[in-house]
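Methods — Computational structure assignment.
A single polypeptide chain was analysed. Its primary sequence is given first, followed by the predicted tertiary structure written as C-alpha cells.
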Amino acid sequence: MRKSRYQLSKPKYLSQPEQAELIKWIAENPSRDALMIELALATGARESELLLIKASDLSEGSVYVQGLKGSLDREIPLKPDLYNRLLTLAKGLEAGDSLFPISSRRLRQIWHDIRPVAKKFHSLRHTFGLNLYAKTRDLRLTQIALGHTNIQNTMIYAHVADGRDQLRKALL
C-alpha cells in the first residue's frame, strides 16, 4: 500500500481542550458567526463549501454540502438543536439564498478573531474527520462524510487516531 505524503500533525486539528474552548465560545455567543463555525465543526465542510450552503440545502434534519476541490457532494445529518437553529436562520430567505452571505476573506477574519489557538479554519475539517473516525472506527463512513473520492486521503485520520490510542494503551 502506498503511503500518503500528507501527514495530519497536531497543528492541523483541534485538540480536545481546544475543541472544548471553541464549543464554550459557541454556546456563549448565539450569533450567525457562532452558528457558522458550529456548522463547520459539525460537517467538516471546507470554507468554500460552507459559504455555498443555501436555505434549500436544509432538509429532514440534514444539510446538503456541495463538494468542491474534487470531492463528492454529501448529505450530513445534524443534531436536532443545530438543525433547528439553522432553520430559524433560514426563515425569510429564498430557497437559493446563502445561509452565510459573506466572503471567504470575512470568514477567515471571523475565525481569526474567535479561534482558540492559532490554527487555520481548515483545522475544523480535520477535527471533524478525526472525531468521526475515532468515534466510529469506520474509514469508509469517514470517507463519505468528508466527500473524499480516494480512500488514501481518509487514511490519515486512522493513522492519527489509531496511533494515538495504541500508544496510550501501551503506556498507561
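Note: The mean pLDDT is 90.
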